[in-house]
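Morning. Coffee machine broken again, so started the prediction first thing and wrote up yesterday's gels while waiting. Chain of 244 residues, entered below exactly as on the submission form.
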Amino acid sequence: MLTDKKEMRILTIGAHAADQELAAGMIVAKYTAAGHKAFMLSLTPGEKGHATLSAAEYAEQKRREAAECCRKLGAEAIILNYKDAELPYNDEVSYEVCDIIRDIKPDVIITHWQNSMHRDHRHAHKIAMDATFFAALKRIERAKPAHWTRRVFFSENWEDMEGYEPDIYVQIPEPIFEQYCDALSSFALWEGGTGWPYADYYKSLARLRGCLGGGLNWKYAAALMVPKGGMVQRFAGERLPLEL
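Came back before lunch.
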């Protein structure tokens, strides 16, 4: 827990509920356990991915699942009302996210990498980057004052792997990994409820990154990518990599 260290705020921005919970949930759990605050913003519920439930029914379910998952991760869930597979990329959405950034005042933003097989993920990346830019400009007058987020990172999502190059491996202690798995089990999709083996993939990925990040010394890790020009770094402690 925090003693004399500054409390940090983490904001994840995903296209759909479960996107960043899956991709950044271990990192969120690690740092909320250390006393930091986290907010997980989803631009849509991700309501069109169920084989039998209607979009309205699945949206309601995904909202409940996200709230429970984030509670277990120690974070706050925020879900906007845009439609799955129809997330627009425009200034209106970017300014809405800008206002959320100015309200939360995050030190760190984690979002999608720009290359994805999913249109919503590509749009979410651009929205997050534009919103971060808008939020930092004092001359853009909104309800809340400007806020500059010191660092933006891209999480490792199975749908966003084209050109994804991990720059940072964050060690994940085993209890945090177990907490993550329990939290993600709040989503029916975790155990294949929508026809894809999320649990198998993300558990295996955590072990793979642990091997690459720490060899025999690390069991689990999560990867982050930074804007080009950064250096590969490894973080085993309780601080986020703010001083790159």
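The chain has a mean pLDDT of 93. Going to sketch it on the whiteboard this afternoon.
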